[in-house]
Design a protein that fits this description.
Elements (H helix, E strand, L loop, with lengths): L2 H14 L4 E6 L4 H12 L11 H5 L1 H4 L5 E8 L18 E2 L8 H19 L5 E4 L7 H7 L4 E2 L5 E2 L7 E8 L18 H5 L5 E2 L4 E2 L5 H4 L8 H7 L2 E3 L3 H4 L19 H4 L3 H4 L4 H8 L9 H15 L5 H10 L3 H14 L2 H13 L3 H17 L3
Parallel strand pairs: 3-10
Antiparallel strand pairs: 1-2, 2-7, 4-7, 5-6, 8-9
Length: 382
């Protein structure tokens, strides 16, 4: 079969199985990306979640020696939640970023790519394909950019003309030499909305470069104590951050509900915060296990829930937070609970911190308790 015919068949089949956009790229070295990764490492901008060496991340043939092409796919996801529950004074809620709504996208995209791989092998029996979604060595963004899926915006997201940046990306390396698609022209222009709106200044230079160490989406996934600077910026985010996508003019009016798998369960994507504090492992798995935001386990999400309750100054949560501060076996959770109580700032909270200090042995937790009591000075300046 001629390459053009095969490519067209693949495009048609991709549409049939619910792939919103597909593009073809060469498997050449990503030399520009290699330079950017080198700079990122020098500046310590990496998250630490990256997989593989710079060479493995930029030289496809190291991962699949037979690689001739890379097929990139994109699936659009919703930007608005239908029937979103309101956060009330009686029941404060946290928020998962849109990329964690619905079923874990890694599974959904792998399923689509596996079907695509089978389809290709039926037509080209000696095809060799290797599938990756987010957790592989290759940069989904660099592949998508080269394959004409979209351009790389100043917010470091791939922006597609059809769906904005609300798309999940995945790719498949193959030994078939496909005809590459033309890249999409960058149209950010002079716009700086994402750079100006980023709560922590994580988008550096003229954008296109991310300091992951300052990015709230990354910080919500860390497991240790969150630095004070970021606690004040977290708001009610439990996992991820959408600010740089929400302010992007290219995302105006973009809201796609074409994949039932990505529809959010409002009680999961906007969960009540207080019940999260003492959720058991089993309950956590039952409620949050199918979403991508659960991959780090419950600890970071519980820490973030404590910070969100402090952000709301939620007095109804004080009893639960005291319980957590006194009895949780994890120092990060006990310490964050103490800080949270101080920030909420009632007399009951300060008394509880002092009482707990008498039995606390962990130095870091004691330090957090001191910080919690610091809030008392601003509450009662005399």
């Amino acid at each position: 079969m001629r390459t053009e015919e095969l490519q067209q068949e693949i495009r048609d089949y991709a549409k049939e199985i619910g792939i919103d956009k597909i593009g073809f790229a060469t498997a050449d070295v990503f030399s520009e990306l290699k330079e950017r990764l080198r700079r990122q490492q020098e500046l310590n901008y990496q998250s630490g979640f990256e997989k593989g060496t710079n060479e493995e991340r930029t030289e496809p043939k190291r991962l699949l020696p037979e690689a001739q092409s890379i097929i990139s796919i994109a699936l659009a996801y919703p930007s608005r939640m239908k029937n979103a529950p309101r956060s009330t004074k009686e029941e404060r809620r946290g928020l998962f970023a849109r990329a964690s709504w619905g079923l874990d996208y890694h599974d959904v995209l792998r399923d689509r790519l596996a079907k695509l791989s089978e389809f290709i092998k039926e037509r080209v029996p000696d095809a060799i394909n290797k599938i990756m979604v987010d957790t592989g060595e290759l940069s989904d963004r660099a592949v998508a950019e080269r394959a004409g899926i979209g351009f790389s915006g100043k917010n470091t997201s791939i922006i597609t003309p059809e769906f904005g940046s609300f798309v999940y990306l995945g790719e498949m390396m193959t030994n078939i030499p496909f005809i590459p698609d033309a890249p999409v022209e960058d149209s950010c222009g002079d716009c700086r909305k994402c750079l100006d709106a980023c709560p922590t200044g994580a988008l550096v230079g003229d954008g296109g470069q991310l300091n992951a160490q300052r990015c709230i989406a990354f910080l919500t996934q860390t497991k240790g104590f969150l630095e004070d600077e970021y606690r004040f910026k977290l708001g009610n985010r439990v996992y991820g951050c959408d600010t740089c996508q929400q302010v992007c003019p290219k995302n105006k009016g973009m809201d796609f509900h074409t994949h039932p798998e990505f529809e959010p369960d409002p009680e999961v994507s906007k969960p009540k915060l207080i019940p999260m504090l003492r959720i058991s492992n089993r309950e956590f798995k039952e409620k949050f296990g199918t979403i991508s935001g659960s991959w780090r386990g419950k600890k970071p999400l519980q820490r973030n829930a404590l910070i969100a309750l402090a952000h709301y100054k939620d007095k109804t949560a004080i009893e639960e937070i005291i319980e957590v501060m006194k009895n949780d076996p994890r120092p990060v959770i006990r310490g964050t609970a103490a800080w949270s109580l101080g920030k909420i700032g009632t007399e009951e909270a300060f008394v509880a911190i002092r009482e707990a200090m008498e039995n606390e042995k962990d130095e870091q937790v004691l330090f957090e308790m001191e910080k919690g009591l610091e809030f008392e000075k601003s509450t009662n300046p005399h």
